[in-house]
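In this supplementary section we document a worked example of the pipeline. Step one takes a protein sequence of length 355 as its only input; no multiple sequence alignment statistics are reported here. Step two produces a three-dimensional model, which step three serialises into structure tokens for compact storage. The input and output of this example are shown verbatim.
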Amino acid sequence: MRPRIAVIGAGAVGGYVGGHLARTGQDVTLIDPWPAHVEAIRAHGLELEGVTPEESCTVRVDAIHLTELQGFSRQRPVDIAIMAVKSYDTEWATTMIRQYLAEGGFVVSLQNCINEERIAALVGWGRTVGCIAALLAAELHAPGRIRRTVAKGGQEHTVFRLGEVHGRITRRVEELGAMIAAVDSVKVTRNLWGERWSKLCVNGMRNGLSAVTGLGGNNRERNDAARRFSIRLGGEAVRIGQALGYDLERIAKIEPERLARASEGDAAALEEVEAVLLASSNREERNDLQRPSMAQDIAKGRRTEIEFMNGFIVEQGVRVGRAAPAHQALVKAVKRVERGELAPSPDVIRDLLPA
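The serialised model returned by step three reads:
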């Protein structure tokens, strides 16, 4: 019997992954709080777009509003619950789904930030799995319509990293990895925590900066001040991750130590890192529609995950005695933009930190 999969949060990433899992024949139910989105999926199917016509399809998939979840009590229990809500919604969403888990069911965190500990506090470490979308830029741009804005990874770049919290390779993560491989390339990793922190470094460099500047992916890298500030953010996060003992992976195709050195004034490292970032902004498969999730949140008037992203880096820096002034300044600026006290503009960068 196919495992029953519930995706909690059918937004850009959750909807994209859940939709493609359903497309390949998996038993998927999407659970979302936006009524218009749920109704559109029920009426017309979930429309998935990509950067090439071949990636576009319409998928018929079960979708329910979160208020209808109590109906699961009369149905087969959930084997795999994929958590794809914002980090600030993790606890209540985990509490909501845990009572419908099968005896061997587990929760997969498919989220931007590091939420495995929050999930494990509610369902137990043995029922907690991590999944990182290392490069999956997508946007829920209309009810029932999700658009991916970067090319598929394929053999060039492994998009998903899937792992157990204890670092061992288990049958369940291998089976889940085989399912996700139908969506895009996937690696079952023994280094979940290193992968998690490395992705947090990438998000910490990009998301909040796009939110306060209004610059999309390509234009953010091409802006000299934004690019230099993102390097500073990346270097601070790398040093904190190293102090925490994580085995860091490459960050936006950059070796962690080179990124840290670039942020600390090493001229050769800075030239190397800037060349990589500028090259990425000129790749044909990227486009100017790409907006990190936090920039999308600002544009839609929603709360951001800044406290769980850059704010978390600051908190972890305090734990190991390493300051993160760039991240701290960015958190304050994003909160001001959230409250409407500051308009997104590249000019904001000048006020984030002294030169």
